[in-house]
Amino acid sequence: MKKIAIFASGSGTNAQNITEHFKNNKRINVEIILSNNTKAEVLERAEELNVPSIIFTKKQFYETDVVKNVLIKKEIDLIVLAGFLWLVPESMLNSFPKKIINIHPALLPKYGGKNMYGIKVHEAVLNNNEKDSGITIHYVNKEYDKGDIIFQKKCKIGIYNTPGMLEEKLRSLEHEYFPKVIEKLLS
Predict the structure, then answer these.
(1) DSSP symbol at 7
(2) How remote is the C-alpha of 1 from its chain's centroid?
(3) How many CB atoms neighbour CB 99 within 10 A?
(4) What is the DSSP letter of 89?
(5) C-alpha separations of 81 from 7, 47, 78, 137 in Å
(6) Does residue 104 have an active-site annotation?
(7) Can you tell me the mean pLDDT for 123-136?
(8) Cβ–Cβ contacts within 10 Å for residue 128, how many?
């Protein structure tokens, strides 16, 4: 059985979608959901989905091996960042080489980096009059959104001409493709 750990800081729609995708899978399972935000809706989703969850502090994440050790003890095969906004510490990157992935709501390398997340990305894309946007799934390294690209899906902006509409369109692409890419990586 391949085991997934999902890190999320917010609502957790991708975490829920991924968990539901693998719910009856005999080879792949979401083992744990981790969050750095005590008020994150993802924690409620984890409880509803019967997935164990833990909350950790910035100090635990960056100054200790508490979080890394949980992942090692649970024998995690893939770490999935799904709306998680902190850089991953180098010790964790070294312990899980090419086993940490992230999703970004734009076609990297454009519109990535520190403070480029959520609606801010869509506003920047629209303000630059881009014709296309999309999603990027990439490996995580020590810089924001700079890891090797695994998968991209492009869409025409067209009628999705407000940040909210574009966000909704890209979320549907995330929900369609993120679990498929995870499954392919673990097969």
Answers:
(1) E
(2) 21
(3) 19
(4) P
(5) 5, 19, 10, 10
(6) yes
(7) 97
(8) 9
Cα 149 to Cα 101, 103, 121, 136, 140, distances in angstroms: 10, 10, 18, 7, 9
Please give the structure tokens belonging to residue 53. Answer: 């969850």
DSSP per-residue letters across 111-175: T-STT--THHHHHHHHHTT-SEEEEEEEE--SSTT-SPEEEEEEEE-TT--SHHHHHHHHHHHHH
Query: Shortest CA distance to 50 belongs to which of 72, 28, 74, 20?
Result: 20
Q: Are 163 and 122 in contact (CB under 8 A)?
A: yes
Mean predicted lDDT score pLDDT of the chain? 97
Q: 104, 122, 138, 175: which is the annotated catalytic residue?
A: 104
**What are 132-177's pLDDT values in tens digits?**
999 999 999 999 999 999 999 999 999 989 999 999 999 999 999 9
User: How far apart are the C-alpha atoms of 76 and 13, rounded to whole Å?
Assistant: 21
Output phi, psi for 41, to 5 deg. -65, -25
Distance CA 55, CA 100 (A): 19
Decide: 92 and 100 in contact? Cβ < 8 Å: yes
Task: Give the separation between CA 101 and CA 81, rounded to whole angstroms.
Answer: 6
